[in-house]
């Protein structure tokens, strides 16, 4: 009994709260609902505390980015910045011309964050942390632009994070990201169907 009580620390309850908000985020993202951006404001606030205490500093830092891009994503989805009109942003494919720049940004972020984590922190997982963080930055931008391929990027991020968080003892988040990994593939198929239905209208 004492072991059970010791397990449920304040940090564990934060993890549970983050898990519940994360499930809400996933539901709204799956259905391409703009409320996903409300979840994108709440979840980083919880996650920043958890990641800092666990020494996952790049993941801590990326949540500042998440807060900023949540505002951008809400505006982009609501006002269709592509066409500069006040109408919902349609789902689309990532343009082919964006693949190389996105890959270059990913590589640059990975090497920069790996170096910073090794040089300035006591991180025990600098490369792992840097990779998931760098790819998350690119994936979040893809989500904000409503590109269907964001789900494929999240699939890789989520699978890596599930392992990372389990290794670091953040068990509830490990479960959450394991669920994310499965839903990412289903979400990709769902968005392709939504995109096809939007194009028929």
Would you mind describing this structure in some detail?
The chain is mainly alpha-helical and 201 residues long. The chain has one domain (2-89, 98-200). It contains eight helices and no strands. It has helices at 2-7, 10-30, 36-54, 57-79, 99-120, 126-144, 150-167, 171-200. The N and C termini lie far apart (59 Å). The mean pLDDT is 87.
Fill in the keyword field for this structure.
single chain, mainly alpha
Give the termini separation.
59 Å
Number of domains: 1
Indicate the proportion of strand residues. under 5%
User: How confident is the prediction overall: mean pLDDT?
Assistant: 87
Assign the structural class, choosing from mainly alpha, mainly beta, alpha/beta, alpha+beta, or little secondary structure: mainly alpha
Given as residue ranges, the uncertain stretches (5+ residues, pLDDT < 50) are none
- One letter per element, helices H and strands E, the order comes to HHHHHHHH
Q: What form results from the Cα inertia axes?
A: globular
- Which percent bin holds the helix content? over 70%
What about the largest sheet? Answer: none
Q: How many extended strands?
A: 0
Radius of gyration, in angstroms, nearest whole number: 17 Å
Please work out how many helical segments DSSP would assign: 8
């Amino acid at each position: 009994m004492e072991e059970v009580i010791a397990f449920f620390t304040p940090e564990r309850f934060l993890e549970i709260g983050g898990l519940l908000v994360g499930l809400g985020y996933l539901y709204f993202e799956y259905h391409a609902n703009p409320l996903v951006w409300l979840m994108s404001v709440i979840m980083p606030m919880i996650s920043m505390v958890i990641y800092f205490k666990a020494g996952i500093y790049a993941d801590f830092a990326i949540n500042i980015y998440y807060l900023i891009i949540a505002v951008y994503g809400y505006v982009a989805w609501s006002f269709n910045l592509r066409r500069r009109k006040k109408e919902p942003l349609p789902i689309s494919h990532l343009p082919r011309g964006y693949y190389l720049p996105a890959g270059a940004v990913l590589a640059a972020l990975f090497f920069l964050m790996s170096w910073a984590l090794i040089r300035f922190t006591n991180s025990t997982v600098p490369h792992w942390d840097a990779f998931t963080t760098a790819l998350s930055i690119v994936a979040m931008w893809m989500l904000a632009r409503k590109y269907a391929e964001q789900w494929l990027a999240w699939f890789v991020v989520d699978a890596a994070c599930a392992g990372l968080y389990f290794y670091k003892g953040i068990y509830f988040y490990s479960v959450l990201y394991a669920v994310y990994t499965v839903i990412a593939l289903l979400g990709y198929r769902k968005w392709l169907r939504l995109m096809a239905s939007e194009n028929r209208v």
